[in-house]
Every structure is written in structure tokens, then in C-alpha cells.
Amino acid sequence: MARKVLLDEECCIGCGSCAELCPDVFEMDEEAEKARVILAEGGDEECIEDAIATCPEDCISWEG
């Protein structure tokens, strides 16, 4: 079973690094100027791990 990725949008500063690294999983909400998850499950876990490591505010995590 695929793990589910979470993004705390309140914590997000809109740097865009996650969307640049994993465009299949994250995208930028231009209106809110924050990232959002577009594929919560089934994304490339290595790519998501890179996004977790790169996020300057530690807003991305795995559910559970």
C-alpha cells in the first residue's frame, strides 16, 4: 500500500521547491502563493523524500 504524503499549507512559505522537485505530486497555488498536494498517494517516494528534505519549513511529511 502506498504511503500518503501530507503538506501543512499553513506552514508553507511558498518557496516552490517541492513543486520543482516533484511536479507530479505538488503544485503551486498561485492565488494562495503556497504549495498543495495533487497526488497524495502513489507518487515517486524517492522524489517525495527529496522534497521533505528540501522544504525549509519542514511542512511535508508522511501520514502516520
Q: Could you characterize the architecture of this molecule?
A:
The chain has two helices and four strands, in the order E-H-E-E-H-E. The protein has a two-stranded antiparallel ribbon with strand order 1-4. It has a two-stranded antiparallel ribbon with strand order 2-3. The chain has one domain: 2-Layer Sandwich (Alpha-Beta Plaits). The chain has 64 residues and is α+β, with helices and mostly antiparallel strands.
Name of the CATH architecture:
2-Layer Sandwich
Give the strand tally: 4
> Briefly, what CATH class?
Alpha Beta
How is the largest sheet built, in terms of strand order?
Answer: 1-4
How many structural domains are formed by the residues? 1
Mean pLDDT: 96
Largest sheet: 2 strands, antiparallel
Descriptive tags:
two-stranded antiparallel sheet; alpha+beta; 64 residues; Alpha-Beta Plaits; 2 helices
Task: Furnish the topology, listing elements before pairings.
Elements: E1 5-7, H1 17-21, E2 26-29, E3 34-37, H2 45-54, E4 60-62
Antiparallel strand pairs: 1-4, 2-3
In short:
The protein is an alpha+beta fold.
